[in-house]
Design brief:
Order of helices and strands of chain A: EHHHHHHHHHHHH
Distance between the termini of chain A: 38 Å
Structural class of chain A: mainly alpha
Largest interface: A-B, 44 and 50 residues
CATH topology of the largest domain in chain B: Rossmann fold
Oligomer: heterodimer
Radius of gyration of chain B: 27 Å
Order of helices and strands of chain B: EHEEHEEHHHEHEHEEHEEEEEEEE
Strand order of the largest sheet of chain B: 5-6-7-3-8-9
Helix content of chain B: 10-25%
Strand content of chain A: under 5%
CATH superfamily of the largest domain in chain B: P-loop containing nucleotide triphosphate hydrolases
Radius of gyration of chain A: 21 Å
Strand content of chain B: 25-35%
Number of helices of chain B: 8
Number of helices of chain A: 12
Number of strands of chain B: 17
Chain lengths: 282, 442
């Protein structure tokens, strides 16, 4: 019996056995399920604003409101400097990148619990779930970007050559958000505490990053420690690239890029490690 | 046997679940504190539970194999491993061909999405490519019969429509190996028939089906062979009839299994029934009866703390193990109502006189209600055997394969033309003018 099994079969052959140690990432499996990735992303986008009176316009209203509040609190009340750019454009630009980060992080870290029914009833590469959340965050970003362009035209803010760095920043922001999100998603299968930790963490990161204020406003003696937060130079560089406000510290920028790749890889590995017991504990 | 006609080979398959006891952590804080206190100890005390232990079997291509066993026998775990939802602890499975598994109808359906959107979403969750779904779209809609409601959110569907649509998507998955769990327990009778028909199509088109069910009629109707699971082990693999017999012998209540009553309760049932048995005409406990015998089903209930039943109602359904339901009755429908309680405990019994059952295996579904309300239920806890008997006094026994009950006919012949009458039994030579003959048609 066992010997004849070695004869090649023309049909697909699948072996199920316990995976040990660092199981193979099995990226091919994700490729096989690429249509599911798309379907889940579509579902999320379609569902987000169902049964809301204002519908899709929330995609625009939310960041505008947030930027408005920032402008009032930090621009008018606290009188934080935004350099030569109007404070509204300044904070909107920061929030645009920030929302991509927090949207991806929040959605990817909660997606397993929200789809626990799927996990216990059907097989598919579990990574598909958190990966699909990136799309809906990207769609929000795209709409926000359109509005950003309108604002830039209105306030006559032009980007420079540095604009080519913007996609690099965004990619790093997504990788960072996904890496953290994957880790928390994996934890959330066993520990529901995650849903309370993530909002606090994002809040903390928001104030630890130069979104409402300029990197220049950080006292010089804290600047080195401050920039250990890789998100700091990613957001700062993004704003420098799009509205030429701020500065690029190349050393810290490259450090941030490396960090985001490392965080992402650790996130994926940890997720795969915890993946084995998802169906049993969720 | 060569590998080319194998569809599934399972070797040494085991799955351990850890049942956490006190000291197990469900919040990060507890886990963290425990780690602080005992940095090197494995967290929590836990007991191992072997849901599956060293299971080996092979399924040939094109075989339709039933998986039967009591609740907790390991069927669901086996299915979950086969469909890659969870990993085995030990062992190895090889699957030759694309696997489609259907553990629940409508997994991933979203109530807010329309029928059309759900077809695509559910299809891709089940592993279909978008192109495939497009190709099958009309067939799916047709099978489910929901054309008019394609653009209505499924939350507005009736539960029947919902289930039909969900099954339709899964039925068009077209895998080489189909793994199905109890999906037929939902939907109306008409639709169940349609589903069974579809599964038969799948089976006859040379694909392999692994079918888990408690419905012995469906298993014997569909499956060419079966596997009986018991306490995580494979207890039998072979022809369906023998497997079903094996399953029922596992089910036969004996003193040991009285404690296991819980296994026969559906999830909604509350533990009221404490004993159930069957009695023969003499009042002695027995589980083998000749055809036409009187048969008594007795059950005792005791209410848990602080509970009482105002109007206990006993209900009985008799199932033929392969043909399905034979009949059922409860006190209320026959006008037998108890005085207003409260009753804390009682023994109720139901005697069925001259039960016209044919030879074979039967199971009993016992129901206890409070008025019209469901209280407790034991499915297949009692099982009994009917032995052939000469019920017509003709020296012959009724044919066992003609359904589940035997008929009690009054034959009558009125004719003057004796030539046309069956020649045996009717004594033509005596020239009787009329013949009233009791014949056993043969």
């Amino acid at each position: 019996m066992m010997t004849t099994l070695t004869t090649p079969s023309p049909r697909l052959r699948l072996v199920i056995q316990p995976t040990r140690g660092w199981s193979a990432l099995n990226l091919f499996d994700i490729w096989v399920f690429r249509d599911l990735l798309q379907s889940l992303a579509k579902r999320d986008v379609k569902l987000r604003y169902r049964q809301t009176a204002l519908g899709v316009s929330w995609v625009i209203i939310q960041p505008l409101l947030a930027a408005g509040i920032f402008t009032f609190v930090f621009g008018s009340v606290a009188k934080l400097s935004s350099g030569s750019t109007p404070y509204f454009v300044f904070s909107y630009c920061g929030l645009l990148a920030w929302n991509l980060f927090s949207g991806t992080l929040t959605r990817s870290s909660t997606c397993l619990v929200q789809n626990s029914q799927l996990i216990s009833k059907v097989y598919f590469p579990r990574l598909v779930l958190p990966l699909s959340t990136v799309f809906s965050a990207l769609i929000d970003f795209a709409v926000g970007l359109g509005l950003m362009i309108v604002l830039m035209v209105k306030y006559r803010v032009a980007p420079g050559m540095g604009l080519i760095l913007a996609p690099v920043c965004l990619l790093a922001i997504i990788l960072m958000a996904l890496g953290i999100g994957l880790y928390f998603a994996g934890l959330s299968a066993s520990y529901r505490d995650v849903q309370y930790i993530v909002p606090v963490l994002t809040q903390l990161l928001l104030y630890a990053s130069p979104i409402a204020y300029r990197l220049e406003s950080v006292p010089a003696r804290f600047l080195r420690i401050y920039q250990l937060n890789p998100l700091a130079s990613l957001f700062e560089t993004f704003r420098w690239a799009t509205i030429r406000n701020g500065q690029v510290h190349w050393g810290f920028f490259i450090y941030a890029l490396v960090c985001s790749v490392v965080v992402f890889i650790i996130g994926v590995i940890e997720f795969k490690r915890m993946e084995r017991k998802f169906a049993d504990v969720i | 046997m060569s590998s080319s006609d194998m569809a599934i080979t399972v070797r040494g398959l085991s799955k351990v679940y850890k049942i956490a006891h006190q000291g197990a952590h469900t919040t990060l804080g507890e886990a963290f504190m425990a780690r602080l206190r005992h940095p090197f100890r494995r967290s929590g005390s836990s007991e191992q539970f072997w849901a599956l232990r060293d299971v080996d079997f092979d399924v040939k291509q094109g075989e339709v194999i039933g998986v039967i066993g009591r609740n907790g026998a390991g069927k669901s775990t086996l299915l979950k491993i086969l469909s890659r939802i969870t990993e085995p602890t030990k062992g190895r499975i090889e699957l030759f061909g694309r696997v489609g598994s259907l553990l629940e109808v409508g997994t991933g359906f979203h109530p807010e999405l329309t029928g059309r959107e759900n077809i695509f979403l559910n299809g891709s969750i089940l592993g279909m490519r978008t192109r495939e779904i497009e190709r099958q779209f009309d067939a799916i809609v047709d099978f489910a019969g929901v054309e008019q409601f394609l653009d209505t959110p499924v939350k507005r569907y009736s539960s029947g429509m919902y289930v039909r649509l969900a099954f339709a998507v899964a039925a068009h998955l077209n895998p080489e190996i189909l793994v199905v769990d109890e999906v037929l327990s939902v939907g109306d009778g008409e639709f169940q028939k349609k589903c069974l028909g579809k599964m038969k199509d799948v089976a006859t088109s040379g694909r392999t089906v692994l079918f888990v069910s408690h419905n012995m009629a469906a298993v014997s109707n569909l499956c060419t062979s079966c596997i009986v699971m018991d306490a995580g082990k494979l207890s039998f693999q072979g022809p369906t009839d023998q497997g079903i017999d094996r399953y029922l012998s596992l089910n036969a209540p004996d003193k040991d299994q009285q404690r296991d009553m819980a296994r026969f309760r559906p999830s909604w049932a509350k533990e009221f029934i404490i004993d159930a048995r069957m009695l023969g005409p003499g009042g002695r406990e027995q589980y083998n009866f000749p055809m036409g015998s009187d048969l008594t089903i007795e059950m005792s209930f005791r209410c848990p703390d602080n509970r009482q039943l105002r109007r206990p109602v006993m209900g009985v359904v008799i199932n033929h193990t392969t043909l399905g339901v034979v009949g059922g009755v409860n006190m209320r429908m026959t006008g037998f109502e108890l005085n207003d309680g409260p009753y804390a405990s009682a023994t109720l019994s139901c005697t069925l006189s001259h039960l016209p059952l044919l030879q074979g295996r039967y199971t009993v579904e016992l129901w206890l209600g409070d008025g019209p309300e469901d209280v407790d239920c034991l499915i297949n806890f009692l099982a009994f055997h009917i032995e052939p008997a000469d019920v017509y006094g003709s020296g012959q026994t009724p044919f066992g394969h003609l359904g589940a009950i035997y008929l009690d006919p009054q034959w009558r012949v009125s004719s003057n033309r004796f030539e046309s009458l069956p020649h045996h039994r009717v004594a033509m030579t005596h020239g009787q003018a009329s013949a009233l003959a009791t014949t056993s048609e043969s």
